[in-house]
Specification:
By secondary structure, the protein is α+β, with helices and mostly antiparallel strands. The chain is built from 6 helices and 5 strands; from the N terminus they run αβααααββαββ. Helix 2 packs across helix 3, helix 2 crosses helix 5 and helix 4 runs antiparallel to helix 5.
Length: 160
C-alpha cells in the first residue's frame, strides 16, 4: 500500500467514513519506558522470543543504544496493534504473531501472522495504521484497525 493510500485509509478510519459509508475502527495505544525494556533488547534470546527475524535485521545495525529505542517502539506497536484487534498479548496472541514493518520512508506498518491474522480475518479487519514515536526515554504507539468488524471472542456480552 502506498503512503498516500495509507494516509487516505487513516483519514477514513479516523473520520469513520469510506467510499461505502461509515468505516468502523478500533484504536489501540501503548506507552513504554525504553529503560524498562532494555533488558529484553540486550538479551539475544529475549529478542528472538519477541521479534521476528526481519524485525531484528534493521535493529541490529543501529548499535546498542539505538537498538533498545527501536525495539521498544516496535514492542509498543505490537501491544497497540493487539489492543486494536481487541486482544491483549497473552490472550491468545503471541509477540511474533504481529510483525512491525517499515516502508521505504521508514513509516511503520503491521503484518499479521498466525493467531493475529486469524483474529483480524474473523473480525473483518481490512487494515491497520500505526503512528509510532520516541521521546524523553519513552516509546508510544497508536494503532488504528479499520474494517467491518464482527464479534470479538474476548468481549463480554451486553445482554444479561
Amino acid at each position: 500500500m502506498s503512503i498516500s493510500e495509507r494516509l487516505a485509509a487513516a483519514w477514513a478510519a479516523l473520520l469513520g467514513t469510506g467510499a461505502a459509508g461509515p468505516v468502523p475502527v478500533r484504536v489501540g495505544l501503548d506507552l513504554l519506558s525504553i529503560a524498562r525494556f532494555e533488558r529484553i533488547a540486550r538479551h539475544p534470546r529475549g529478542r528472538r522470543m519477541v521479534f521476528r527475524p526481519a524485525e531484528l535485521v534493521y535493529a541490529d545495525h543501529l548499535g546498542e543504544t539505538r537498538r533498545a529505542e527501536h525495539l521498544a517502539g516496535r514492542f509498543c506497536a505490537k501491544e497497540a496493534t493487539a489492543k486494536a484487534l481487541g486482544h491483549g498479548l497473552g490472550q491468545g496472541l503471541g509477540w511474533r504473531d504481529i510483525e512491525i514493518t517499515r516502508d521505504s520512508r521508514g513509516a511503520p506498518g503491521a503484518r499479521l501472522h498466525g493467531r493475529a491474522k486469524h483474529i483480524a480475518d474473523l473480525q473483518g479487519v481490512t487494515g491497520i495504521v500505526l503512528s509510532l514515536s520516541h521521546q524523553d526515554g519513552l516509546a508510544v504507539c497508536v494503532a488504528v484497525a479499520h474494517g467491518a468488524f464482527g464479534p470479538s471472542r474476548n468481549r463480554r456480552s451486553t445482554h444479561d
